[in-house]
């Protein structure tokens, strides 16, 4: 047995084994042969980081649930309300049928003619899930994704699931030409 020096604690059997350096009593393994075992602290940090990531992700954008409160129509600039395509000709008046309309998917615009000589412009992006509308028929603008329908006169919802009307797009009629403002 090993006697401890004054002021030191007595190691007992464990201390005696540790002091026998070079002895055959030492374990025959190296520390790099041991597999890693995470500590409680590591597990708590990893769990906290995972929870924080989930919390931040749940606070992010909903990915288009249709509940956005933005007053800017898709394709418009917040500062001046223009798309950079001011005055771009979309169609001639003869291309838009009375009681119907035409979709310009590249410009994200629908132009309708509810009555002879009365032309309206709306965004072609459905307010429900931001799909591009596909047809204009029987007095409605129709979205293929979930069946929403909008009136050609004012863009109001004619058939859910959409709950908000299609935002109006400014167009002008100059002679026979319909232009996006």
UniProtKB/TrEMBL annotation:
Biased composition range(s): Low complexity: 67-85
Highest taxon of the lineage: Bacteria
GO cellular component entries: membrane
Annotated spans, Disordered: 60-88
Entry-linked Gene3D superfamilies: Rieske [2Fe-2S] iron-sulphur domain
UniProt-listed InterPro entries: DUF6529, Rieske_2Fe-2S, Rieske_2Fe-2S_sf, Rieske_Fe-S_prot, Rieske_Fe-S_prot_C
Domain Rieske: 88-180
Alphabetized UniProt keyword annotations: 2Fe-2S, Disulfide bond, Iron, Iron-sulfur, Metal-binding
Cofactor(s) required for function per UniProt: [2Fe-2S] cluster
GO molecular function ontology, one term from the record: monooxygenase activity
Primary role: Iron-sulfur subunit of the cytochrome bc1 complex, an essential component of the respiratory electron transport chain required for ATP synthesis. The bc1 complex catalyzes the oxidation of menaquinol and the reduction of cytochrome c in the respiratory chain. The bc1 complex operates through a Q-cycle mechanism that couples electron transfer to generation of the proton gradient that drives ATP synthesis.
PANTHER family referenced in this protein's UniProt entry, alphabetically: CYTOCHROME B-C1 COMPLEX SUBUNIT RIESKE, MITOCHONDRIAL
Name of this chain's protein: Cytochrome bc1 complex Rieske iron-sulfur subunit
Organism: Streptomyces muensis
Lineage: Bacteria, Bacillati, Actinomycetota, Actinomycetes, Kitasatosporales
């Amino acid at each position: 047995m090993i006697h401890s020096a004054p002021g030191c604690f007595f190691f007992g059997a464990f201390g005696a084994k540790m002091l026998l350096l070079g002895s055959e009593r030492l374990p025959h393994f190296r520390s790099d042969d041991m597999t890693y075992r995470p500590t409680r602290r590591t597990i708590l940090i990893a769990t906290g980081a995972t929870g924080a990531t989930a919390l931040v992700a749940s606070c992010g954008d909903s990915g288009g649930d249709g509940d956005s409160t933005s007053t800017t129509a898709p394709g418009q600039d917040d500062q001046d309300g223009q798309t950079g395509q001011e005055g771009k000709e979309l169609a001639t008046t003869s291309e838009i049928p009375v009681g119907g309309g035409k979709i310009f998917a590249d410009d994200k615009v629908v132009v309708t003619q509810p009555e002879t000589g009365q032309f309206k412009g709306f965004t072609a992006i459905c307010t429900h899930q931001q799909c591009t509308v596909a047809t204009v028929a029987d007095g409605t603008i129709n979205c293929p994704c979930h069946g929403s329908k909008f009136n050609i006169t004012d863009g109001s919802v004619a058939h859910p699931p959409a709950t908000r009307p299609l935002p109006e797009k400014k167009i002008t009629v100059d002679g026979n030409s319909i232009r996006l403002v």
